[in-house]
Amino acid sequence: MKRSPALLIAGTHSGCGKTTLTLGIMAALQRRGLRIQPFKCGPDFIDPTLHQLVTGRVSRNLDVRMCGAPFVQHSFKRNGSQADCAIIEGVMGLFDGGKGSAASLASLLELPVILVVDVRSAAESVAAVIKGFASLDPAVQVAGVICNRVGSAKHRSMISEAVQRYCQLPIVGFLPRNEAISIPSRHLGLHMGEEHPLRGDKLEQLIELIETHLDLELLLQLAGTNSTPSAPSPELPPLVLPEPGPPVAIGVARDEAFCFYYQDNLDLLEAAGAELVFFSPLRDPALPEGIQGLYLGGGYPELHAQALSANQSLCREVQRFADQGRPVYGECGGFMYLSQAITDLEGRRFPMAGVFACATTMQQRLRRLGYRQPRQSRATILGPKDTLVHGHEFHYSAISEQDAGMPTAYVLDDDRPEGYTHKNTLAGYVHLHWGRTPEVATRFVEACRQPLTT
Fold this sequence. Notes:
- This protein is an alpha/beta fold.
- The protein has helices at 18-31, 46-55, 64-67, 69-80, 102-109, 125-135, 153-166, 202-213, 216-223, 263-271, 305-310, 312-323, 333-338, 439-449; strands at residues 6-11, 36-41, 60-62, 85-93, 112-118, 141-150, 171-176, 185-186, 189-190, 248-253, 258-260, 274-279, 293-296, 298-299, 328-331, 341-343, 349-351, 359-362, 368-372, 375-376, 391-395, 397-400, 408-411, 417-422, 425-428, 431-432.
């Protein structure tokens, strides 16, 4: 049986231009009438929104380290089979990140890799870089190369001759330097897709650049080189969820301030019987009627702290909802919103929902970054004691004005206490992906379904 065409676009290092190239390739293939299913290697929330901007399809995270191999295989097979071609964007450099690397993902899914090389300030030496990446791991199939930020025709010729002499890989294209189509960034990464960072004619310029300088026919050919495996792939066991009970309405904060959600988590909640009701803490004066639980994801509350704080009617409703013992789950930005206040880099303090006896303060430098495996030190709305969950931590803020007696429910890998609790509210800095632990979604929905007791 033929596998759908797919390829993974990886880089030699962060900042080589793979995100812009990936978006351009997706958009150019869409322009040709192909249905492109986007994926992102790693825990990133931002790049998937950009993928959705240009393809119109939800981009899924494929993270072997965080989600586990079985879930990654299921997600890729289930979502990739619905499209003409799957495009997966790598993370950092091809081999960076151990089990969470793009190389690990390419090996697991037997994906052909297109290597993006930033060739600024190098010429013949580019061949050595390409040869090293292509030969480092026999389990990783580097199928082609894109040379980015080429300075001139002579520069291109020098690179081409060296690659032809020393490497056995086709060059899919040479892209000239073009800063006009770069995507703006800030402290947590590039701007989100919802902010339309390719507004105006930037996307058209990018598509034209790709169509002019890349061999898209060759790219599609390389994407199909792995479409006929030498042996049939074994059938994967289905992901098992308990039979859902009666529907339960869960409010999900979603706007410019709260935009970091794994679509898989939302899907798992719905599969467990949740009816997701989206609302905006920036604009809505009250919580949606009839909800029995709250999910406050991450995002950029620090950029919208003044507007969030000005909406005191909603802050009070959230505080009252939590004080009543209703289940509330918050991650990173959601945790910041549930604190007493957010203090920005200018020292301005903005009162928030005040559920927790602490505040958060923005820092000039990154505070925490990395994969986390929280183990529950006691039962919570996500599971019983000793439940092990999987996620990632990435934030610039720090806890301040903390009550020394504020209870926690997690113990992290480095023995740090985390996962702060107040009645049936659980929140902290770690972003969880429930792919390895779908029962967590069921547990949260069941907690929301329980009648309120006073």
